[in-house]
Write a structure and sequence with these properties.
Order of helices and strands: HEEEEEHEHEHEHEEHEHEHEHEHEHHH
CATH architecture of the largest domain: 3-Layer(aba) Sandwich
Strand order of the largest sheet: 12-11-10-13-14-15
CATH class of the largest domain: Alpha Beta
CATH topology of the largest domain: Rossmann fold
Shape: globular
Distance between the termini: 29 Å
Number of strands: 15
Mean pLDDT: 94
Radius of gyration: 21 Å
Strand content: 15-25%
Low-confidence stretches: none
Number of domains: 2
Number of helices: 13
Amino acid sequence: YHFPYRGGIEHRNHEISRRLALKHDVTILTSRLPGAPEEEIIDGYRVIRLPSRFIGGYNPPYVSTPGVLQALEDLNPDIVDFHYRWAHSYTRAMKKYDGKWLFTFHNTYGEGVGIIHIISYINDSLFCRMIRNRRTICVSEFVRNDLLNRGFKKELTEVVSLGVDLYDGPTREDDYFLFTGRLVDTKGLKYLINAMPSVDSSLVIMGKGPEEKKLKSLVDQLDIGDKVTFTGYVSDDEKVRLMSSCKAFIMPSLFESFGLAAAEAMAYGKPMVASNVGGLPEVVGDGGILVPPASSNHITNALNKLLEDDELRWELGQRAKEHISRFSWDNITAQTERIYLKELEK
């Protein structure tokens, strides 16, 4: 996928591509979402969208795109960075492609819960046979270490984190905590909502997703509708307002290969409460409080600790902004470019 769909992978590819396009010819080859143009230039890089079929109601749905291999061969690029491992039409094309290519591993191996975890695990075990001996970029040390334990070669793996836009505008502190992200099981939002009855503050949940109806029902069951607000999608200006005005951010994920939403939030100089899972400890550093996953009691205690200590909130917020500065998109793009050039020299 790529724009107009705006997930974490799409955002990363956009930010890196528009910077690389200042020095290189960059093309993103992707599926064509309904209503999207077949081809366009976005901030200096080219987007080619191939006719595709979309299956299922999950967001994003399963995609099948014929013609990927032919399109790659027609483009004849110096190097291909492959990003998506859940679409067999793309995987088949890359198996047959004779040019130079590498893979960027964005999500946790076997990510998901219930039946999604089982399907994801089987898919990843088959997919990794294809890339185990190929240059692989990982979005966190956690992802890299997990792949090394699964037989990947250290000399062929690199870590290039996701990036953030560093915020330098005004901030204030209103009486609410903020979650931002997709409303899916793996984000652990039911544990956050169950924590709120014992927290003397409000919660704003920014985003949409397939679990929204269930989460709203849980809020009603707990009779805390006056404390929890669902915003859905918001404008860029409203997103900045919410992120710059909260007391702290909350990321109660059950799985997280990196935690882009956490990194973006910390750029506002606000403290973070996050689950101690996956790549989140790398992102949070000393700029927040880590709690065990799936524990409403620990979330309650962390939020109340921040509410009761103004100095602690300020200190953690300052640490958060300082720590996250290393994840600027300019730094991430430079690291990515070095890997591409090194691979081309082989």
